[in-house]
What does this fold into?
Amino acid sequence: MWEWDALEVAWNKTGSAGNSTPAILLIHGFGACKEHWRHNQPELGKITSCYAIDLIGFGESSKPKARLNNNQKVQGDFSYGFDSWANQVADFCNEVVKRPVILIGNSIGGVVALRASQLLKNSCSSLILIDCAQRAMDDKRLYEKPLGARLMRPLLKSFVSQRWLSQELFKNAAKPSLIKSVLKKAYPSENNINQNLLDILYRPSQTKGACEAFHGFINIFNDHLAQELLLTTKVPVDLIWGEIDPWEPLEEAKRWFYSFDCIRSLEIIQGVGHCPHDEAPEKVNPVLMKLIQEAM
It folds into this structure.
């Protein structure tokens, strides 16, 4: 464990390398944890030091009470959002890794990686975003929604801000049967959906405070968008995308590739969904190894 801002942060490491070689830091997506890189970290550790971290609210890291934007700060609470998580990542790199890093993030972990790269500046060598979250529900994208959805947004915000509601929603979601049904959507091929994966995702959901990250996350309506961060990102970015991601459309990733100067490659993994690194590691690991070796 690493103590950060009076909170405990869980992490692990494989491999080793000299200080002149960039390390790798793996950043998981929503509801996941460092073990979600189970099929990748051992391989990446063969070429350099490879760290995986549990964001605050997930895995074995602390799960403090959520503070929403309109709430007054109380000792011991936490603002679940991309600046907070990016600061956690940047401080971890500065205090634990202590050398240049390549950040790899899946889903919301991709947005965290983008923001953290800006905080790290020259200490971040490059970024690899795997099915990066496009955050279609953000207020800044409300103009894309039908009129009815725009008119209902204030009511939706009021509704989901109720802690009793988020607790009930979380209680219903944190069941092995529902987790498995979500995985079948996220992993269209159903490859690697096994008891180990179910345990990896279910076990943290049963720990004290687990519902707080859920409460904080479903109330993020105005935060960083990957599209905006990419406009000012100074390091090279590589994209890896599941061809049939049900939540983050490949077409949007293609638009990013042609729109942002910092993006140098887009690798499409055929027949897989939102978490290609875990659904098809035999396809993704060679891509990761090649990109990392090119960045060193």
